[in-house]
Amino acid sequence: MIPLVLSGGNGTRLWPISRGGFPKQFHALTGEHTLFQQTVMRLDLPNIEAPIVVCNQSHRFIVTEQLKQIGRDAQQVLLEPFGRNTAPAVALAAMRLLNAGRDELLLVLPADHVIKNQQAFAAALEQAQAAAEKGDLVLFGVPAVSPETGYGYIRTSVSEVAAAGPRPVEQFVEKPDLDTARQYVEEGCYYWNSGMFLLRCSRYLDELKQYSPDIYDTCALALSTSHEDGEFLRIDGEVFEYCPDDSIDYAVMEKTATATVVPLDAGWSDVGSWSSLWEEQDKDESGNVLRGDVQQLGCHGSYAHATDKLLTLIGLDDVVAVETKDAVLIAHKDRVQDIKAVVNGLASAGREEVNSHRQVFRPWGSYDSVDSGSRFQVKRITVKPGASLSLQKHHHRAEHWIVVSGTAHVTCDDQTMILTENQSTYIPVAAVHRLANPGKIMLEIIEVQSGSYLGEDDIERYDDVYGRAAVVGS
């Protein structure tokens, strides 16, 4: 059994923590480890191989760094130039395996879900494996025990949803209104669609070719023109651009005659909103979930998350308050589904807060834009031990570097130098330069930029150990 971890989502409804450049699966929202790391660690079971990961190409170094943090490896990381939903992502992985002569069972897992009961998860996998080995396309259904309107539903003929054993799908149902959801719970034969699947590669591709041939053909062509880049497989964007944007459910599962449900009663949540995250967390005596530097007085049933500053709440019930370095969200818990509309409005206005945090992570470390004006910008830059930025130059800005801690190896045109704590240097406009950390501890510097244009696209790379010579950004 080969896990396929799908990590292409943006988690819009968990803005402002989740953003395009660093979405929710890479945040530790429910414990010590990120949702992505929890998904991979959940796979420490017999007869399950290392995972294949599908992610956006802009997240490739986040994926490898978070795998490294938990001591895990991926068989391969497939890089999509842009998202085309789950049906193409699974097709690419299945085709990749078949081309290598491996017609394995593929365990499809979103990277941003929570499963609390590992034993129940393992038991459901065992039931699903028996069905998938017979040729069924198996999906995991969560017993619908409350009237949720944010999930798709699956109807079966078995009236007791908690009963063990696979059962055929009778009908897929879109997200219902509240009254309809209550009716589903009362009838007792409905499941929430978890978005998790177990299927043999060849069986999925046969059904995809029959019911969604455009996806099949486009993925086959895109894969044939893709190229290896170390541990990554870069999917050809010129071809993949024409692939239909469709989920497994719409493309295959709602049309095939072999869709089978295996009950998954394992404390599952897709953590799809701030209200669902509140439901999953331990609460204080007033029903509040408080994360970070938060103080409250007279609040009940609220969720408060502070990342950078002291966050205080007084006399608020059933609200969500989330603080980041550059944005604050305050909403009633009943209205958190509307966050997506707010984010869409910000995107239409060209607001960068949709895509990036103030602190931006790179494969060599990170930078935090501390202050900025019309002709200056101040950044706090951290560089990992042994790491280095690209050899580069800027056409419109000069830079001053002050070492706060650690050791910096600086290249500036034909000069090199070693700087330590409290030492500084100046990088003129158009100077070819590089910053590296030759030491054993984190290097921290303050960078003061000045010039007529300070955008991240004012960069010309000459050499980069991370293969980003043609990519915009530090």
Q: How does this structure look, described?
A:
The chain is α/β, with parallel strands linked by helices and 474 residues long. The chain has 3 domains: 2-269, Spore Coat Polysaccharide Biosynthesis Protein SpsA, Chain A; 274-340, no CATH class; 359-463, Jelly Rolls, CATH 2.60.120.10. Helices cover 23% and strands 32% of the residues. The protein contains 11 helices and 31 strands. Strands 1, 2, 3, 4, 6, 7, 8, 9, 10, 11, 12 and 13 form a 12-stranded mixed β-sheet that branches. Strands 21-22-23-30-25-28 form a 6-stranded antiparallel β-sheet, with no helix packed on it. A 4-stranded mixed β-sheet has the order 15-17-19-20, with helices on one face. A hairpin with a 2-residue loop joins strand 26 (408-412) and strand 27. Helix 3 (86-99) crosses helix 6 (201-211), helix 3 (86-99) crosses helix 7 (213-224) and helix 6 packs across helix 7. The relative contact order is 0.11. The mean pLDDT is 94.
Determine the mean pLDDT. 94
CATH architectural designation of the largest domain: Alpha-Beta Complex
The CATH C-level name of the largest domain is Alpha Beta
Quaternary structure:
single chain
Structural class: alpha/beta
Which superfamily, in CATH terms, is the homologous superfamily of the largest domain? Spore Coat Polysaccharide Biosynthesis Protein SpsA, Chain A
Biggest sheet record: 12 strands, mixed
Low-confidence stretches: none
Q: How many structural units, i.e. domains?
A: 3
* Gross geometry: globular
Helix content: 10-25%
The strand count comes to 31
Keywords: GTP-binding, Isomerase, Nucleotide-binding, Nucleotidyltransferase, Transferase
Domain MannoseP isomerase/GMP-like beta-helix: 299-346
Domain Nucleotidyl transferase: 3-285
Pathway: Nucleotide-sugar biosynthesis; GDP-alpha-D-mannose biosynthesis; GDP-alpha-D-mannose from alpha-D-mannose 1-phosphate (GTP route): step 1/1
